[in-house]
Design brief:
Keywords: Oxidoreductase. It is built from 11 helices and 3 strands. With about 180 residues, the protein is mainly α. Strands 2-1-3 form a 3-stranded antiparallel beta sheet.
Length: about 180
């Protein structure tokens, strides 16, 4: 089966749900920033079984100064942007069969004048303008109007009205927005 695929050039596409979060460890890409010596031989041999720690433990032991440092010098963004017209395929990029590229940026920017809120808002605007989606475990500084422009809320609003959820549960924006949570 596999050898037959080598006879002719072929492009293979993988469904998003099979690809998405294949590295499901929550701090997979950033452990070197959290534990700088974590990749040394002696640490991995003696204490490697302790890593990766749960993010909830790291947040529980985080001081206000560390949180402020993290907010001002750290960047986490993960976006899905449609490929529309970029590949020579039969896929027209519409509906449930659209092709998306997963773009992730994680870490500590090395420029001196990095402004996380301004930079993130520019990226969010780019993603909205290109009909993409921001993953909501990433930092988000969108307003509620911008958030609703990125995600279709029509069915969500119908269900909230049908089951009278207004007083019982917060809106999704209240769960993912840093401005509402902080």
């Amino acid at each position: 089966h596999v050898e037959a695929k080598f006879d002719t050039p072929e492009t293979e596409f993988m469904p998003l749900r099979d690809y998405f979060h294949r590295h499901s460890r929550s701090i997979f890409w950033e452990i070197q920033d959290i534990i700088p010596f974590g990749n040394s031989t002696w640490f991995r041999y003696l204490l490697g079984w302790l890593v990766p720690p749960k993010v909830s433990l790291l947040k529980l032991t985080q001081s206000d100064a560390i949180k402020e440092l993290y907010d001002n010098h750290h960047f986490i963004q993960d976006m899905l942007v449609p490929i529309r017209g970029m590949l020579n395929t039969d896929n027209k990029g519409q509906g449930r069969t659209s092709l998306f590229v997963d773009i992730g940026a994680y870490g500590v920017p090395s420029v001196a004048n990095f402004h996380p809120v301004h930079t993130t808002r520019r990226i969010e605007a780019f993603v909205r303008n290109h009909h993409g989606f921001q993953m909501m475990y990433a930092d988000s500084y969108m307003s509620e109007t911008e958030f609703e422009a990125m995600f279709d809320h029509s069915l969500y609003d119908q269900m909230r009205a049908k089951y009278d959820c207004a007083g019982a549960f917060p809106r999704v924006f209240g769960k993912v927005s840093r401005a509402v949570r902080d």
